[in-house]
Specification:
alpha+beta; 19% helix; elongated; 321 residues
């Protein structure tokens, strides 16, 4: 069989155990639980210790797989039936980002007895075996918005996914092409450090494997025509009949260029007399039905991006022309 050498290798590593009678069925469908078992063992889980063999192997595998989030982003998965190619790829990707199981041992000098300990490492599979890292942060712009400094670069304000919560996010500028429609949203950058440059941060010297929008950012895509009069003293914005809470500070950016205008405190509060807050008035400023993207954090609007339909060229466009 074309996969014979791979089967022999994986069997020697206890990643696969076959049909239970010493034979293997490489052309048979792989179930979700079987794929999860292979990935978990590759991630350092001992098949015997974690009881991935025997009558209850599937139950034990599924419990550990859920803990490691191997089934994340896979809806309504039935782990007892064959996996689709899409779900197989998603599980493999999840394994790359999962923390590996670390094995340590202690030896008693007098008796020579060895005891083994298992615990989750702070390293992911991606870190350990590919020397690659994941940078998680907010896509804040590119060269045309004045945020990246160099043509063909983007700027992601973030930090390593393995970094402690106390670590402050910082801007990383590197060559990549990401649709500006994703501005303000959380992205993941998969990269491998080059021999020079800033270690543990994507830059021009690194290999950028990809930049992916995570979908974790709460976004409201609408138009300026859908911003309603507030008519109250509340600190809110009303979009097509629905009121949304506001963060302590809201930044409004037009045409994605510049740092935007900051609104806070009284400028966020509406009045019964004038109907609107300064923020609402700013979002209603244009009359052409311009596209409007609101970014929410913890359920509160904190940024707004207005893309003007009828406007003069941006400063960057003029410079380029």
């Amino acid at each position: 069989h074309w996969a014979r050498s791979y089967i022999e290798y994986c069997a020697s590593m206890n990643i696969i155990a076959g049909q239970g009678d010493g034979t293997f069925a490489p052309d048979a469908p792989v179930t979700g639980a079987a794929a999860a078992k292979m990935l978990l063992v590759a991630m350092g889980y001992d098949s015997s210790l974690f009881e991935f063999t025997g009558a209850d192997w599937e139950i034990n595998v599924n419990r550990r797989a859920n803990e490691a989030k191997l089934y994340e982003e896979i809806k309504n998965i039935d782990t007892s039936v064959g996996l689709s190619r899409d779900n197989t790829a998603q599980m493999a990707y999840n394994a790359l980002e999962a923390k590996i199981m670390e094995t340590t041992y202690d030896k008693v000098i007098s008796s020579g007895e060895v005891s083994w300990s298992y615990g989750l490492s702070n390293e992911t599979f991606l870190n350990k075996y590919f020397d690659a890292y994941t940078w998680v942060g907010t896509f804040i712009g590119n060269y045309n918005t004045g945020k990246a400094g160099t043509k063909g670069y983007i700027n992601v304000d973030g930090k390593l996914d393995t970094a402690d919560e106390s670590v402050t996010a910082k801007e990383a500028k590197f060559p990549y092409d990401l649709d500006i429609a994703n501005i303000g949203e959380e992205v993941k950058v998969i990269f491998k450090d080059g021999k020079s440059g800033t270690k543990g941060q994507p830059d021009k010297n690194d290999t950028i494997f990809g930049v992916f929008v995570t979908g974790a950012t709460e976004v409201i895509n609408t138009t300026t025509a859908k911003i309603d009069d507030l008519k109250t003293t509340e600190t809110k914005v009303k979009v097509d009949g629905t009121k949304y809470d506001l963060a302590d500070k809201v930044i409004v950016v037009k045409n994605y260029v510049g740092t935007g205008t900051e609104y806070k405190e009284d400028s966020l509060k509406g009045t019964k007399d004038t109907k609107n807050s300064a923020l609402t008035t700013a979002l209603q400023d244009t009359k052409n039905g311009d596209t409007l993207k609101l970014i929410l954090k913890d359920g509160k609007v904190e940024r707004a991006y207005i893309c003007l339909l009828y406007t003069s060229p941006s400063p960057r466009d003029v410079e380029e022309s």
